[in-house]
Design brief:
single chain, alpha/beta, Dihydrofolate Reductase, subunit A, two-stranded antiparallel sheet, globular
Length: 198
């Protein structure tokens, strides 16, 4: 069974974006990029909500080809172009999309089927079978309410926003977590890596 891990930057008071979706408060430097890159490079499946996917699709496919591309942009662009992408959307279709599957209905059934499937390339590259859910607060909330998220990979930023889009909302039952790892970065961000304790 594959795990869905929610990867998210979060403020100290629990918001993943400002009231209008602002993310300019997120701290991300080379130390964090290198750390995150090591983990995601082992995976081959990413999950997005429609808005986050369209943001990614507008930037990452060609980001590594820019004359002034950073090492991080080159590496992440290569990874993004080869992975299987799953997108939760009721309005998109798969026509013309590369390595992309749209999930538009029967969310619980479709996600559980994907979780039970084997990872496309993990066996031959020593990779991880985890499915990383990048950002996408709306998709995260939908999956959380269906108890489909298996872990939270959080990067707590040293800021209190006061208002915005919360990570945890409309939770009807307690979610017990087990802390697997934690790490502090020089920029003040703290990584908390949890698995859901079922």
């Amino acid at each position: 069974m594959r795990n869905i891990i929610s990867f998210m930057h979060i403020s100290l008071d629990g918001f993943v974006a400002g009231p209008n979706g602002e993310m300019d408060w997120i701290k991300a430097n080379e130390e964090i990029f290198d750390h995150v890159g090591k983990r995601i490079s082992k995976g081959d499946t990413a999950l997005y909500g429609r808005v986050t996917y369209q943001m990614m699709e507008n930037y990452w496919p060609a980001a590594g080809n820019k004359p002034n591309a950073t090492r991080h942009e080159v590496e992440h662009s290569k990874w993004y172009n080869k992975i299987q992408k799953l997108v939760l959307s009721k309005t998109m279709n798969e026509e013309g999309l590369t390595n992309t599957k749209i999930i538009s209905d029967n969310l619980s059934e479709n996600i559980n089927e994907i979780k039970k499937s084997s990872a496309p390339h993990s066996a031959d590259n020593g990779g991880s079978s985890d499915i990383l859910l990048f950002g996408s607060p709306g998709a995260t909330h939908s999956l959380m309410q269906l108890n489909l998220i298996d872990g939270y990979w959080l990067f707590v930023n040293p800021i209190i926003l006061g208002s915005g889009i919360p990570l945890f909302t409309n939770i009807s039952n307690k979610i017990k977590l087990q802390l697997l790892t934690n790490r502090s970065f020089a920029c003040g961000v703290t990584e908390l890596n949890y698995i859901v304790d079922r």
